[in-house]
Structure formats: C-alpha cells, structure tokens
Amino acid sequence: MTRSSTSFLAPAAALAAALALTACAMPAAGPKPAAVAKLAPTQGSSTTGTVSFYKEGDHVVAVAQVSGLKPGSEHGFHVHEKGDCSAPDGMSAGGHYNPGGQPHGALGSGPHHAGDMPNLKANAAGEAEARVHLTGVTVGGGGADVLGKAVIVHANADDYSSQPAGNAGPRLACGVIQAS
Prior knowledge:
Elements: H1 3-25, E1 35-41, E2 48-56, E3 59-67, E4 74-80, E5 116-121, E6 128-134, E7 150-154, E8 171-179
Family: Belongs to the Cu-Zn superoxide dismutase family.
Enzyme class: oxidoreductase
Organism: Aquincola tertiaricarbonis
C-alpha cells in the first residue's frame, strides 16, 4: 500500500469510528404513540401487556404486546366502548366499540365494529405481539375517537361471525386507552 492510500484510509477509519460511537450514543427513539392502554389482568387471570396507538395518515395502528396467555392459543382482542376496567371480570368496559352501528365481523372483510381486531396468537411462551391497522377510528378527536375507551383480551378466539361479539368468552385483561 502506498503512503497516499494509507493517509486516505486513516481519516476514513476515524470517521467510521466516530459515526459508530455517535450512533451508539443516540437514543433509539421511534415515533411516540398517541395513546397507550396498559392491560391489567381480570380476576383469576395473569394476562398483562401494553397496546400502543399510533396515528398513521388516515388510520390508526395498534401495536400490542401481551403475556400470560395459554401457550399456542388464540384470543379475541377488541376496543370496548367504556374506559372502565373496575369490575373484577372486566364487564364494566361494556361491549365492542361500535360508533358506526355495524354488525360484528372481521377487520378487512366486510362490515365490522370499529373496535374489532384480529385474534391475538400466543406463542409457545404464552406471549403475543400484533400490529393492526384500524380504519374508521381516530386518536384524540372526532366522532370515533378511541381515547377513553378500553382494550380487552378475551379467553377464547373470536369467531368473527357470532353476534354481537364473536363468542370470544370471558375477559382476561382490560386497559383504558389514555393519551401518552
């Protein structure tokens, strides 16, 4: 290697090292959620988690991280009409959030409640993650605002057809959606 190429590489290596250190020092901050629901277990359950709501254009994205589920199981997962998780069984959260007066159904395939979301699918450790694009709801204003509503995780899978709520069974966890 000639002296001129060595002098070129040294500053380049120093620059690369400086950039690497800068990247390590910078926080890994993503967009801040507009709202968050902290899921607490209902009586007799150990299900907990967090559901974060992000504004993305003309829709809302809900990102869920839930634990304490039966390994390999599916669970109904919905926004409910009342931001009240005071009842031991979570029934104080009311029914599915449905400002448009639609029948219960599957998100993305015909009429459905604004609060209908796909089932959570637990892995072998009883944990579930989901990213759901919701249309017809807002965060922080409008007639279909989810702020002050609740998120419920149910014991059974939603069948997406039984009325009014998909036969998803008892409520395992409840969390009120609050501005973050």
